[in-house]
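re: ur question from yesterday

yeah so i grabbed the chain u mentioned. its 342 aa long if i counted rite. heres the sequnce exactly as i have it in my notes:
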Amino acid sequence: MITEDVLADAMRAAVAAAEGVRGRTSPNPPVGCVVLSPSGERLGVGATEPPPGRHAEVVALAAAGSRAAGATVVVTLEPCAHHGRTPPCTEALLAAGVAAVHFAVRDPHPAAAGGAAALVANGVAVHDGLLRDEVEGGPLRAWLHTVRTGVPHVTWKYAATLDGRSAAADGTSRWISSPQSRADVHAIRAASDAVVVGTGTALADDPALTVRDADGVAAPHQPLRVVVGRRTLPDTARLKDGTAPTLAIESHDPHRVLAELGGRGVVDVLLEGGPTLAGAFLAAGCVHRVVGYLAPALLGSGPTALADAGVTSITQMLRLRIEDVTMVGPDLRISAVPTRRG
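ran it thru and got these structure tokens back, copy pasting raw so excuse formatting
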């Protein structure tokens, strides 16, 4: 018999599988799936493959093989019921002869929805809502946001001292955060579709914006590097080194930037620009999550992490809801989402 605890553990394993492919599935969602035997044994685990690869359910069913007959499937997103790049996942589940499907979140995409009803119509027991909040705040966060709003999801990442300084008075900023925090940022980049900076940051810091391991070796998958602004970068800029795809957008209008990226299939955006660009995105309501790395240090002067964000009075203050607080090496990492102004 499969208990609620076994189902919850399986869903968390599915989330972990999905997290492992985040940043490589867009415009498809990063989905995870686990196939359980009637006694609760894990028969197969799968995650979405890069387009035009298989969906998570198909990968997990292939791992389970003939043992999938009569099995229970635990998946983060409602199985799709439409023909896209691949056949419907509902067909694969029915062909495998599974007995039950538990999913966390109903598919909000109008073309793909309806999988649950198709399964029920063919005698499969279907249950939804398993660990919904955990799943919606996990690997599916950006994809769900984009499908529901039509706009790519933006995470603003910054590093600062405890007094909010992103650089010293002379402009130097390497390194405010610890090596552990910088490694953590590379992990966030690796899971993103695009990394955005302004031309001011690109000219001042000459960042590479690539994903590298602890030894400095470039990862096989690199997010799109995006430079926003009208200033021209020199040919010697590292953003022009050809090591990763790069896009220049000659605008500081966040809505235009996101429209351009959305048209390219970008779902998950990491905003790493300086205080001016961050302020523009916040003022436009185009930041959907904030991840701050606070170093146990004080500068007392120098640039702040955030410039004008359209706030002139305390009643306009942008309120945040903290989701997570974690120590990363000596630094404090805070993840929060905007709630309202005032």
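noticed a couple things. The two ends are 51 Å apart (CA to CA). also The chain has a mean pLDDT of 93.
anyway ttyl
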